[in-house]
Amino acid sequence: MWNMLLSRKIFRPFSLAFRKYQVTVVGGASDIGQTLCLLLRAQPCITKLVVHDTRVHTSGVLLDLSHIPSDSKIKGYTDEEALDASLQNSDLVLAVGGEIQNPGTNKKSWLTKNTEFIKTLAKSLSKLSPSPFCGIVTEPINRLVPMAAEIIRHYGEYDPKKLFGVTTIDALRARALFASDHNLHPHDCIVPVIGGHSDKTTVPLLSQSKPSKEQNDQIILDFTTRLRKCDEIVTEAKKGWAPTLSVAFSVLVFTRSILDALGGKPGKVNALIENNDFGTYFLSGTVNVNQKGAGEMERYCDLTQYECYLLEGSLEQLRKDVMNGKKVLEMT
């Protein structure tokens, strides 16, 4: 019976219509990177998965991944000098390297390492024409994405439609929290999240939630606080280990949407992109994407007065974060 079903012509167009893509994960041996590479290894639309990292265990990670039966090829690079080669012919580049800010991590050291990681990547990206899509996951996104934009613009060909700070985790968390609060299935819920990507700039819009639920200022404040503290809460529950699993999954969700868009199926992603609607130069929210990259960001009306208050504070901090990132060329 199964042989008869599989031989029917109705199944063939799906395999024939499958487009194939090359995805490069820079920082692929990091905690987030390893989980992400595992998830990407199972994606049928990825012809070639390229992993770049300079960590000492990168070769072991590559060997581990190679033992997963997959139709896709896997290629690894372990030298800093090989970064340019790892980006060649990539449709999508995902930056997940640098350090995670765990308890006890020196903030200055963390920021310096992550800044250098994105600086190096941005300079390599600037050499590519046409530019691949790029999703930056390395924190702090509010600062590093504008910095990458300035570097690429200075050294090469910059396409603002193809540079994204991946903030999908904010939308997924908001959906999960909302569903739990109201005893709903997460797939039946939407809670838009706008602003930036930090514990001072993330703003969920409960007034725009689907399904609509009763809310007041206290409910909005409590929900916003919980969403902003998700990193802290998970890290504490994991005894000092950051939430790498959910973040890696969120990058997979982002990746699927981008590859669908490249294949001619427009969609939406949650991301920080170049957007000056509020005078911040960059803004995070629900972004329409197509084959050319980022399109219009979703706009909302009828926000509550308290949401406007939270958004005002968020935008003030986001503006500072973005300007710190844009100043990078003045310091080099």
TrEMBL record:
| Enzyme's top EC category | oxidoreductase
Provide the GO MF annotations for this entry: L-malate dehydrogenase (NAD+) activity
Q: Which GO terms describe its cellular component?
A: cytoplasm
Boundaries of every Lactate/malate dehydrogenase N-terminal domain copy:
22-165
Instruction: List the Gene3D superfamilies hit by this protein, alphabetically.
Output: Lactate dehydrogenase/glycoside hydrolase, family 4, C-terminal, NAD(P)-binding Rossmann-like Domain
Q: What is its EC number?
A: 1.1.1.37
Task: State whether keyword NAD applies.
Answer: yes
Keywords from the UniProt entry: NAD, Oxidoreductase, Tricarboxylic acid cycle
Is Oxidoreductase set as a keyword in this record?
A: yes
Domain spans labelled Lactate/malate dehydrogenase C-terminal: 167-327
Q: Which InterPro entries match?
A: Lactate/malate_DH_C (IPR022383), Lactate/malate_DH_N (IPR001236), Lactate_DH/Glyco_Ohase_4_C (IPR015955), NAD(P)-bd_dom_sf (IPR036291)
Q: Name one GO biological process term.
A: tricarboxylic acid cycle
**SUPFAM superfamilies, per this entry?**
LDH C-terminal domain-like, NAD(P)-binding Rossmann-fold domains
Q: Which family does it belong to?
A: Belongs to the LDH/MDH superfamily.
Name this protein carries in UniProt: malate dehydrogenase
Organism of derivation: Manduca sexta (Tobacco hawkmoth)
